[in-house]
C-alpha cells in the first residue's frame, strides 16, 4: 500500500467525523508522512498498521475527548492541537511585541520620564524627612524652653512658670509630630517604592483569556 492509497482509505473511514475534524486529522497524518520523507513511507505505513486501525483510534479518541496512547503504537492525533500550537505561537509573538514596544518606549521616553519620575520621588522623600526633622526640632525646642523656664523660676517666678508651660506645649507637640512623622515615613516610602515597582511590571503582566 502506498501513501496515497493509505490516505484515501483513511479519508473514507473518517466520513462519520465532522468535516473540520476530518480535515484536521488528514492534515496531521499528511504532515507526518512529509516529515518522515518519501523514502520512509513504507516504514510509516508499517508503524501505523492500517488505515482502519488509525481511523478507529481517531474516532474513539474524538468521542472520549482525550487520547491514551500507552497501549497503541499509532501516532497520536489530538483534535485542536493545531489551534493550541497556533495560540501558543501567537502568545509568544505578543510577548516579543510587548518587549519591543517597551524597549522603544524606554529609548524614546526614558530621557524625559525617568528624570521627572526620579525628581518626584526625591521631592516626596525630602518632604517626608523635612517633616520628621521639623518635628524633632520642635521637641528639642520644647526641651530647651523647659530648661530656660526652670532657670527663670528663681529671679522671675511668674515668667519662669509661663516659659515652662510653653516648653511643655512645644515638647508635647514635638513628640506627637515626631511619632506621626516616623509612622508616615515607614508607610509612605515603602508604598511609593511598591507603586514604582508595580508600574514597571505593568507591561509584563498578561491577562489570561479563558
Automatic annotation (TrEMBL):
This is DUF1700 domain-containing protein. Keywords: Membrane, Transmembrane, Transmembrane helix. It comes from Aequitasia blattaphilus. Residues 67-89 are annotated as: Disordered. It comes from the Bacteria. The chain crosses the membrane at residues 96-114, 120-150, 157-180.
